[in-house]
Description:
The structure holds two protein chains of two kinds.
Chain A: H1 2-31, H2 38-56, H3 64-87, H4 92-113, E1 129-133, E2 136-139, H5 140-162, H6 164-174, H7 176-181, H8 186-211, H9 218-233, H10 238-258, H11 263-277
Helix pairs in contact in A: 1-5, 1-8, 1-9, 1-10, 2-3, 2-4, 2-8, 2-9, 3-4, 3-8, 5-6, 5-8, 5-10, 6-8, 9-10, 9-11, 10-11
Chain B: E1 4-13, E2 16-26, E3 31-36, H1 42-50, E4 57-62, E5 65-66, H2 72-78, E6 80-83, H3 95-102, H4 113-119, H5 121-126, H6 136-148, E7 154-158, H7 166-173, H8 176-181, E8 185-190, H9 193-199, E9 202-207, E10 210-215, H10 222-230
Parallel strand pairs in B: 3-8, 3-9, 6-7, 7-8
Antiparallel strand pairs in B: 1-2, 1-4, 4-5, 9-10
Helix pairs in contact in B: 3-6
Amino acid sequence: MQWANAVVQGVILGGLYALLAAGLSLMFGVMRLVNLAHGALAIVAAYMGMVLVNETGIPPFATLLIVVPVMALAGWILQRTLLNTALNRQALAPILVTFGLAVILQNLMLELFTADNQSIDVGSLAGASIQITPNIAVGVFPLLTFVVGVAVIAGLQLYLAKTTTGRAMRATSDDREAAQLMGIDHRNIYALATAIAVGLVGLAGVFLGVRTQFNPTFGDVTLIFAFEAVIIGGLGSLWGTLWGGIILGVAQVVGAQAFPSSGVLLGHIVFLLVLAFRPTGLFPKVVNG
Amino acid sequence: MALLEVENIDVFYGDVQAIFGLSLSIEEGQTLAVIGANGAGKSTLLKSIAGLCTPATGEIRFNGERINDVPPHRRVPLGISLTPEGRRIFPSLTLEENLLVGAHSKRPGYWNLATLYETFPLLADRRSRLGTNASGGEQQAAAIARALMSNPKILLLDEVSLGLAPVVVEQIYSALPAIVEQGTTVLVVEQDVNQAMKVSDRVQCLLDGRTVLEGKPSELSRERIASAFFGI
């Protein structure tokens, strides 16, 4: 029963990873850009949520109404100013730019908030749980995170599949020059994709900040987990990212059940195994140009 | 006034010059064929008109306005639409989605999904097929239809016949009269001289980035075209 519990908890943890990875997956899918500042941006959002709760006393979930739009706007500006320029240079330029941005953000946060661990207080919700079987109990907040993670992935997928702008995004991802010939301004499409991605990082960051303690260096490990979820699932595939997150979560929790204190390591091993034997991921996008 | 005027342009790829002082003009409703061997500068000319290449010198005017500095995505709303060499169908989109992306600029006009399916019956049956799974002929038909979804004033067709079986080429060119009938100006680039002569009001032959011969198809003899085409 312990093992069943570990699997259930792992799946639920996977929802958080999928939520954290959704934006990374979208940016890579649309413009082949690996955003190394992704983790740092999640922590920025967590601090934003914390400051809003502490200073204004608004309920934690209400901070999303501010954090998500602010982050989305920041993403839009980031793409229009730095990243569109970087994308026109060699392949390494966006990686260097986003890496630099991650370093800057992390040090700014250290300066402002010190290296102490913090968290966002949600009161009694933090400890609430639902008893499913006599031996399995699921935390209400982790479950909520899982539901939001699945909803975000499903929503993004629907947006890309059904809307005019989503279609233009997929076309631009397939062939940027041909998309220009259709009258699509790829710079706007990219800015929109990054706005959505960073907005979602904002959402994920606040959930992360409620669920665990964080400090400014926490962005590194966040980036790694999100990145692993994307790679396990297959680059450019959103449903793959959800599955990747779940597989990573299960590997970590079940791993910790078997070898206490080595759960995270087992997650990394699963990631490396996928990379070694299925480098395109478990659920790769079927079509590639 | 001509709809499109290209005046004395030089175009470079890096250090390599592809077009030397080329001029060209098309009246509204006319069909012009630009012919020439590989590397004559035909595709570069179309890319310059569509905005993917920028001439170093000279001027491109559309409706009398200089458009040298207008980016490609802004030329579509003006009424310029290119069917690129190699078709460039979006592989992960269905053929119908490819067509819908073509309507991104929302220019009003005769062409829409219904009228295009009527003109290209081939596409109507294959609409839900992914671009990557479509045959060469289906992709070419879809690429032309996609360009027409923006209801262009001028349609630029680059190497429509390339890599297609003659019967498929026939089938695709048979749609051209329906396009011209809507008053659309057409600029065809072709290596297939016979096809080009058949569909055009005027032919312009390029060699090494320069115009070496131009005139009405009826006034040009095979010998003159052959010598201009090969530079002998």
